[in-house]
Amino acid sequence: MKKLFRRYRNLVIVLAVLAVVSYFNMEFAASVFSISKIQVKEMMLVIPPIFILLGLLDVWISKETMSYHMGEGSGLKGILLALLIGSAAAGPLYGAFPVAAVFMKKGVKFSNVLIFIGAWSTTKIPMFLFEIAALGPAFAVTRLLIDIPGVIIIAQLLSLTVSKKEVDRLYENAQNF
Amino acid sequence: MDIVLYGATAILLGISFMKDKSKTRKALHKAWKSFENILPQFLVVLIFVAVLLTVMDSEMIMKIIGSDSGWVGVLSAAIVGAVTLIPGFVAFPTAAMLLEGGAGYMQIAAFISTLMMVGIVTLPVEMSYFGRRLTIYRNILAFVFSFLVAFIIGQVVTIL
Known about the structure:
The complex is a heterodimer. Chain A has helices spanning 2-7, 9-24, 26-60, 63-70, 75-88, 96-105, 110-122, 125-135, 137-161, 164-174. Chain A is mostly helical. Chain A has 2 domains: 1-46, no CATH class; 61-174, no CATH class. Chain B has a domain at 56-159. At the A-B interface, α2, α3, α6, α7 and α8 of A face α1, α2, α5, α6 and α7 of B.
């Protein structure tokens, strides 16, 4: 019980602040509440399948298979797979982090984990059609063409800044998720 | 969109269940555990997003990123995109609306790019997976990169 409270402490604090605010400005609090409700709905819609797929991936695909295709020495294939899996994803960026944790657990090369995060964040195929419809093909295609190399370059730059030790620590940390 | 995701999940879950019940149970258990693990942070983030969206309405966004706003507008748009968290299928129509309302292409490109790549409110979630330093680096790089995206899209749209 105590542990549960500690984990949700920040949430309790935020809700308490909000309760105090609502005493002075009901309208503000009501708007916050109704927007939160929409966000929770959206989250509940997208999140469960992502986590179930994650669970299945974790149980069915062995570390050996995963690290063979996307681990150290997987080269171009690993990069392309990371791009493809990230781009196929639906849902907001925060959905990508748990997947990244499973990738780390399965021995995926760190730069490929970062490419996956980048692809998930911005080169999403399902969203691409939406973007064309809303903002036109010139806008959407140009953005995609800049983003693909951009995602790879950012991932390489980031992986240059981390030491082997830090990567090991992150991979160890991923075991807890 | 969601139907595809749900359909694929249901099919895979079904196959998994037929092949090995106990493994499937284990998978579901893992799914729940990793969800519950991150839930408290998610909820706090959601409330922060709601506060932000309450403070910033589209009229205010419009004022900041009109097509005459130049690089200052691009910077503002990038900041707005970085701090907000709007799902894509809401963001694109909103962006289209803003364009019609007089926002510039460069500003919109910066907004869309940071919206998708930079997450200020989700920093705590990201840090718990990637650590503080790497998370900050990634977001800074993505932020800077968005200016390049804005510039190139601005050029391409002008030429076309």
